[in-house]
Write a structure and sequence with these properties.
By secondary structure, the protein is mainly α. It is built from 4 helices and 3 strands.
């Protein structure tokens, strides 16, 4: 993959904090970005499905502390080692771009 999409990056960042269900991922992203990024359910679950195929995330059992959903059981997801590697590589790529821009006074420190 040449470049990770913004939504994929946001999902992986959310799961780096620990396992979450889909709605939890959506809430985490909205909170972390101050509402600037708001993924629709279809977009979110399409990205989750793709990352499962790539083996970047996997379904895991819900945490013991998780209260019943009141509906169908929630599916929880966690980063795999491959997902952590993909996230680390993307963050390193982004860091190199920012360092380059700062070194040429293209970005404030």
């Amino acid at each position: 993959m040449d470049r990770m999409t913004k939504r994929t990056l946001q999902i992986l960042l959310s799961l780096a904090e620990g396992p979450l269900h889909g709605y939890g991922i959506k809430q985490n992203i909205a909170r972390r970005t101050g509402g600037a990024v708001n993924l629709g359910s279809g977009t979110l679950y399409e990205a989750i499905q793709r990352m499962e195929i790539w083996s970047w995330i996997e379904e895991v059992p819900p945490p013991d502390r998780e209260p019943p959903s009141g509906g169908p059981p929630r599916r929880f997801f966690a980063l795999t080692a491959a997902g952590q590697d993909a996230l680390s590589e993307e963050l390193q790529r982004m860091d190199e771009i920012v360092r380059y821009a700062r070194g040429r006074d293209l970005l404030e420190a």
